[in-house]
């Protein structure tokens, strides 16, 4: 069932058809559950799941952050049971089950490269660096579904400024945790692991770029990237790397996982752009999990006022 290494990959290719159909039925089930639940509260929206609730604990002292959307938040259970986290399986429902016992403590993130003060941050330090803000962001997957999530964290620039990037730092490279013992499904994922991502330095330092430690008032559940991940809300979801262990400030544009897997379909920039279709499907509209009707996709995922100026003069068809 594995996709040969030489072939160009995409998300659905690396998902066996049986699982893909299972995922479709699961999603349809989610839609049906919501429809029949009407305007009911969170608990009515929850489809019954074998694994029960994800393990997460309350985060205290969270303040309201800037930039939040006032759109309805996606119910918690969609955000925790419809995930992409290939280290824990390629089906959307896999991470909720396979990541249940993922050990995320102790944890540290090493920050290195073109910086004056390279250092390792423990998770406790990361939690204490700045006041934790709740930011309700739209999160748009390249597969044309989306969610609205009250993430918790603070601007990545807070951490970056502490290590003092040098003038050679033009990009930031991010790396996820990878351990075969804890992630035995990794080798069948069809992508190179550890998962890696990257941003240009001005994108990384933009205040919207969130170093994320929680959601919905709690710490991150394992399947959503515990204990710390990035969220870059104007880009397709695959830029938002999970379970971060290494951050490297670098001079050259770093390799990124989906671009390595299939460069013609997944670019380095990957800004949400309704007028540039994915080679095999339209990006003009999206389906918000839990809602029945598609809605138009917004340029830069609705954050154009804040970020469009980062790309002045760039041909966004070429730099997709
Ligand atoms: N990070 C790691 N380490 N591994 C992954 O497979 N998938 C990416 C991104 N970050 C991924 C990852 C993709 S394709 C998407 S769409 C988002 O995580 C999904 O985030 P979510 O499951 O919290 O919605």
Would you kindly provide a written description of the structure presented here, covering whatever features stand out?
- 20% of the residues lie in helices and 21% in strands.
- With 320 residues, the protein is of the alpha+beta class.
- Strands 1, 4, 5, 8, 9, 10, 12 and 13 form an 8-stranded mixed beta sheet that branches.
- It is globular and about 40 Å long.
- The model is unreliable at 1-51 (pLDDT under 50).
- Ligand MTE binds at residues 83-87, 141, 176, 195, 224-225, 237-238, 240-243.
List the SSEs and their pairings.
Blueprint: H1 17-37, H2 42-45, E1 63-64, H3 76-81, H4 94-98, E2 108-113, E3 119-122, H5 123-128, E4 133-140, E5 145-155, H6 156-163, E6 171-176, E7 196-200, H7 201-205, E8 210-215, E9 218-219, E10 229-231, E11 244-250, H8 257-261, E12 285-288, E13 294-296, H9 304-307
Parallel strand pairs: 1-4, 2-11, 5-12
Antiparallel strand pairs: 2-3, 4-5, 5-8, 6-7, 6-11, 8-9, 8-10, 12-13
Task: Write a short abstract of this structure.
The chain has 320 residues and is of the alpha+beta class.
Describe this protein with a few key phrases.
single chain; 320 residues; alpha+beta; Sulfite Oxidase, Chain A, domain 2; 8-stranded mixed β-sheet; 5-stranded mixed β-sheet; 21% strand; globular; disordered N terminus; binds ligand MTE
Largest sheet: 8 strands, mixed
Order of SSEs: HHEHHEEHEEHEEHEEEEHEEH
**How many structural domains in the coordinates?**
1
- Into which percent range does the helicity of residues fall? 10-25%
Query: In terms of structural class, how would the helical and strand content be classed?
Result: alpha+beta
Low-confidence stretches: 1-51
Secondary structure tally, helices: 9
Approximately what portion of the residues adopt beta-strand conformation? 15-25%
What general outline do the C-alpha atoms trace? Answer: globular
User: Alpha-carbon distance between the termini?
Assistant: 30 Å
CATH class: Alpha Beta
Could you tell me the number of beta strands?
A: 13
Mean pLDDT: 87
> Do you know the CATH topology?
Sulfite Oxidase, Chain A, domain 2
CATH superfamily: Oxidoreductase, molybdopterin-binding domain
């Amino acid at each position: 069932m594995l996709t040969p290494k030489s072939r160009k990959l995409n998300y659905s290719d690396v998902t066996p058809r049986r699982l893909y159909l299972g995922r479709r039925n699961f999603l349809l089930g989610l839609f049906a559950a919501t429809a029949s639940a009407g305007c009911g509260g969170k608990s009515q929206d929850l489809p019954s799941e074998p694994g029960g609730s994800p393990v997460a604990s309350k985060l205290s002292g969270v303040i309201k952050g800037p930039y939040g959307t006032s759109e309805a938040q996606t119910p918690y259970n969609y955000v925790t049971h419809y995930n992409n986290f290939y280290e824990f399986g390629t089906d959307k429902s896999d991470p909720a089950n396979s990541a249940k016992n993922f050990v995320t403590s102790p944890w540290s993130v090493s920050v290195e490269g073109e910086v004056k003060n390279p250092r390792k941050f423990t998770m406790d330090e990361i939690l204490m660096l700045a006041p934790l803000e709740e930011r309700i962001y739209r999160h748009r997957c390249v597969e044309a579904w989306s969610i609205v999530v009250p993430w918790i964290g603070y601007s990545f620039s807070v951490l970056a400024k502490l290590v003092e990037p040098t003038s050679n730092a033009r990009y930031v490279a991010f790396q996820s945790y990878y351990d075969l013992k804890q992630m035995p499904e990794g080798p069948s994922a069809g992508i190179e692991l550890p998962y890696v991502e990257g941003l240009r330095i001005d994108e990384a330092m933009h205040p919207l770029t969130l170093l994320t430690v929680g959601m919905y008032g709690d710490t991150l559940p394992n399947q959503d990237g515990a204990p710390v991940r990035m969220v870059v809300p104007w880009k397709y979801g695959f830029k938002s790397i999970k379970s971060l262990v290494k951050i490297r400030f670098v001079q050259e544009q770093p390799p990124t996982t989906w671009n390595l897997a299939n460069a013609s379909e997944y670019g380095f920039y990957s800004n949400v752009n309704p007028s540039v279709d994915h080679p095999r499907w339209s990006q003009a509209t999206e389906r918000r999990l839990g809602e029945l009707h598609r809605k138009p996709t917004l340029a830069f995922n609705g954050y154009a006022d804040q970020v469009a100026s980062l790309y002045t003069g760039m041909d966004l068809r070429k730099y997709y």
